[in-house]
Known about the structure:
This protein is mainly α. The chain has helices at 10-26, 38-64, 69-92.
Amino acid sequence: MIKGFLTLPWFAWAGIALAVAIAYSFFGIPQSAFEATGFRYFTLRWGHACVWYLLTINFVLRGISPNLNGIADIVAGAGGILYLVFMLMAFVIK
Length: 94
């Protein structure tokens, strides 16, 4: 088992991230999502959950093999960019 952040295995982090992703898929939907349309609606409704799903994939890749850390970095970066887009849609663009 490959140790990760705070010496917890990467698969433990993946489980935590997956639980948060599932929670944000059903709960924690911003009220502004119901007033939005198009891309803004999709981003507000699913953006935060998708960020956590990408983090889950990142942790799983790191847990499988250290050789996959480069791909895991790309997936984590995509999650960061998606989170930035989510924040822009939630607080800046109305």
